[in-house]
Amino acid sequence: MSFSIDTQTLEELNLLGKFRQGSIYSLFNRVRTRGGEQLLDSMFRTPLDNASVINERSGIFRFFQEAAMVFPFDVQEILLMREYLDTSAGSSVLTSWTGTIIKRGLAALTRDERYKQAVQGLHATIVTLKKCHVFLETPQLSTGPYAHRIQTIRKILSDPRLEKLRNIDIYQTLPIKTLVFYEHVLKTKLHEEMEGFLSFIYELDVYMAVSDVARSGGFIYARAWPPEKNILSARELYHPGIKTAVGNQLSLDGNSNVQFLTGANMAGKSTWMKSVGIALYLAHMGFPIAAAGMDFSVRDGLYTSINVADNMSLGYSHFYAEVIRVKQAAEAVSQGKRLLIMFDELFKGTNVKDAYDGTLAVTEAFSAYRDCLFIVSTHIIEVGEVLKSHSNIQCVYMPTIMDGAHPLYTYTLQKGITADRQGMMIIQNEGILELIN
Questions:
Q1: What is the Cα–Cα distance from 251 to 259, expressed in whole angstroms?
Q2: What's the maximum distance between 2 C-alpha atoms anywhere in the chain?
Q3: Are strands 406-409 and 400-403 parallel, antiparallel or unpaired?
């Protein structure tokens, strides 16, 4: 099993994208190394699907968040070490000798930089090994959820050849035999160990960077449960990208698997849905989330329909694009998957009568799939009056408070169905009719 999410959902929740404004990825991208960034990208693209593994990863993040450690390595030295290990060393000591002598000779006769780069690369490796040795002596690392990984790296560094290398004085000229010996050892004999060592550094980069974001943002870690528990509950859940966001409660399970959400335009319905979707996705990664607390059972996937657009290349109108999106969700649900599905303003691309009938029929039909959880929003409040009779459908709304002729929004969920109808008042406030007349 793998966590399923499609391109539209990723885009609607603005999850990915290093340079995409306001993306959730950019929020957490405080890593320092290239390898750390590659690892962060991999984590974002492959959410976890096992409760134990999720809780283990979130436990490591929490450990580093509480420890508040500082990344102990120099980024430029890591880069030089990476480049040094990536260059070919030859298959034997003899070929390493030959290659090193040739590079040193070319460096003396021409401006060939390869010998100098080899020396700098070995220097960077020595310094990084020393820093790691010191870091591993940190008392907190001997216990906790990351202790097994620490033990693995200690075992690598205990190799006599690496211990000897670590104690070399980089301020003294390196004998060519030392350069040749470690050229061969590091790139052939200890190739897997050195790759594991660098992977450890990249992991530290990600764990420390993400936990720093969690600490500064006041984020917490969700508790994952097996799929069969079929729950999604949260306290004071809010959008991590909005500094003034308002937190709300959420409680969905098999006996109450649909949240039917009403409210005026701009009341906060779409933002609430995005907040829930982002939290669930990050929780499946074991990442910190913007909430006071959260428990969730592992889902098979996440599916949203928040910003459906028409498709002129396929000849789809906005309404038909909505219908196709609902059909895709129905196909996924009918396959028996445990999903979180969110529809924002169902069928807003058609007339009010069809939108009413369609929203009612689709919501009732989906609600029968108790292993799936749903959030459905609309401003056609009459639908909610009919759905109230279903015990597994909870009706909530985002209220609007009028300050004279001006609407104010609390962004706080309340039980029930809204009676707010401020659309015409907003039109009047903007002076549209006066402009026309």
A1: 9
A2: 92
A3: antiparallel
Where do we find the tokens 């002729």?
405
Spatial distance between the Cα atoms of 61 and 240, rounded to a whole number of angstroms: 17
Closest of 205, 291, 258 to residue 376, by C-alpha: 258
Q: Are 214 and 65 in contact (CB under 8 A)?
A: yes
- Cβ distance 122 to 179 under 8 Å? yes
d(C-alpha 394, C-alpha 389), whole Å: 10
How many angstroms separate the CA atoms of 393 and 416, rounded? 11
CATH superfamily of domain region 219-436 = P-loop containing nucleotide triphosphate hydrolases (3.40.50.300)
**What per-residue confidence (pLDDT) applies to 267?**
83
Which residues are bridge partners to 261 per DSSP?
A: 377, 396
Nearest to 235 by CA among 219, 259, 224, 251: 251
In the chain, where are the structural domains located?
A: 75-215, 219-436
3-state DSSP assignment of residue 431: coil
Name the region of 23 (left: φ>0; alpha: ψ -120 to 50; beta: rest): beta
Divide the 437 residues of the chain into consecutive groups of 10 and give the mean pLDDT of each group: 87 90 94 97 96 97 94 96 83 60 59 74 94 93 91 95 91 80 88 96 97 96 96 97 93 96 86 97 98 97 77 56 85 92 83 85 93 91 88 92 78 87 54 61
Q: How many CA atoms lie within 13 A of 37 on its CB side?
A: 13
Neighbouring C-beta atoms of residue 259, cutoff 10 Å:
23
Measure the N-to-C terminal CA separation of the chain; round to a whole number of Å: 61
Q: Which two tokens stand for residue 46?
A: 């492959």
Burial of 353 (0-12, 13-18, 19+ CB in 10 A): exposed
- Quote helix, strand, coil % in the chain, to nearest 5: 50, 15, 30
